[in-house]
Amino acid sequence: MKIDDFPNEIAPFLIPEPKGDLVYECLGCSGIYPIKKLLYVCPDCGSVLLITNRKFDELKKTDGATWQKIFDYRRMLNIPALKGIYRYHELIGPNIPIASVIYLGEGHTPVVEANQQLQQKAGARFYYKNDGQNPSASFKDRGMASALSYIKYLIDSKLAENIIAVCASTGDTSAAAALYASYLALEITSAVLLPQGKVTPQQLSQPLGSGARVFEIPGVFDDCMKVVEKLSENYSVALLNSKNSWRILGQESFSYEIAQDFEYDMKDKVVVVPIGNAGNISAVMNGFLKFHMLGIINHLPKIIGVQSEHADPVYQYYLEPDSDKRVFRPVSVKPSVAQAAMIGNPVSMPRVVSITKKYNETAGQQSVFFVQVTEQEIMDWGLLANRNGHIACTQGGECLAGLVGAVREGIITDSECAILDATAHAIKFSGFQDKYYTKTLSDEYRVVSKQELINTPILMMPDNPEKIPAQGKPLGEEDFRVFVDDICRKIARELELSDSK
């Protein structure tokens, strides 16, 4: 639709102008710093930052119902910059002109309700939000669209040039960073650090295909992160991990989309997300808080963060019920099939602590919960989900296992409906499925393949194995007829088909 086709009271709001007063705010010392240059941690105390809009209250001059109409009507626009996460421009990057926005097709991923059979097995009504249908096949594109749009804004404003963008990754971050950086290949060079042997072949192929410089480092993700942090402290580079608070802003769009898809009715809703570096759960909570502050939603949904027992520092922290006695301790991770969440020292932990406290206070009750699951549960529930029409990665399996655990613990009631984060496409982690089916998963995963979930191809050979077609060597007409009849009969027997004649 064109602007002239929209109602007069809404049309002036549809194309946003740069405004707002965004600053970096330190979660440690409460210091405030301008956004005219890239900052990842507080220059004074070293704590992580959040980006806040000091003119946020001006957005409250527009009532919640009008904001709903603005976002709903923007759905109909054919302006690329507003098709993705910047549909919510006023909340994600109000200072960024839409001419600086990078849109590669990210955001507005489908929400798919589980079938009745799977909901009965899980014990709750639920949907998957398929973030694996983002351009690089993971939710990381949300944060990268925000971070790279900000960098383009700096370039367009002559505040930066010849940028080297770096990140540490378990796979998905590097794929997204390399993809979005490659779109700005004349201005940005991309480099990614990966833990050697800890990234699936599918994920490794992505940054290589996007032209990034890929460096494999011995150890695990946390070790790569330390190297990247050292690089950002000593050299002029753009850090694209979730320590970058622009990433958090972009990932808030996940919450906005859920609210919009459910007609802004968040009563009796539960959002389940896996926790790795803890940036995503921080963003999800912050997004719902902003919508609530503007009256766009009237209820805050429950938030459930899920961690594997092989990488569970956030879960361990919240085991202590007394907030004054909680002490964060990094953990040494063990191999996990939820590879993207295999992080023992999440950089966004201070964000989780701060935003969780605010979220519960705003809700007037505990509304943020943390659940631990086993590797066996992650694999089994993930495979079961995909056998019922979904495309969930192992982190999506982790979410479904967490949902089942939350139902078992009484965190989720019969009246509530859950939305689960399938953070990446199932294809990215298909190697774990293959190993499950062939019973070749290493013992360190502590996963036993269940026969009822195993699915492997069946080779069908004719009675005469010497009379088979091959490329460049077709069978004669009679031999081919015999071959087809033979194979057809054997497949019919395997499928227990009855003769239709």
From TrEMBL:
Which family is this protein grouped under? Answer: Belongs to the threonine synthase family.
Q: Which sequence positions carry the modification called N6-(pyridoxal phosphate)lysine?
A: K140
Q: Do you know which PROSITE patterns this protein is assigned to?
A: DEHYDRATASE_SER_THR
Q: Which GO terms describe its molecular function?
A: L-serine ammonia-lyase activity; pyridoxal phosphate binding; threonine deaminase activity; threonine synthase activity
Its catalytic activity? O-phospho-L-homoserine + H2O = L-threonine + phosphate
Q: What is its EC number?
A: 4.2.3.1
Transmembrane helix: is it a keyword of this entry? no
**In which pathway does this enzyme or protein participate?**
Amino-acid biosynthesis; L-threonine biosynthesis; L-threonine from L-aspartate: step 5/5
| Residue ranges occupied by any Tryptophan synthase beta chain-like PALP domain in the UniProt entry | 103-408
User: What protein am I looking at?
Assistant: Threonine synthase
Biological process (GO) annotations held by this record are: isoleucine biosynthetic process; L-serine catabolic process; L-threonine catabolic process; threonine biosynthetic process
Sorted alphabetically, the keyword list is: Amino-acid biosynthesis, Lyase, Pyridoxal phosphate, Threonine biosynthesis
Any keyword Amino-acid biosynthesis? Answer: yes
What cofactor requirement does the entry state? pyridoxal 5'-phosphate
Q: Which domain of life is it from?
A: Bacteria
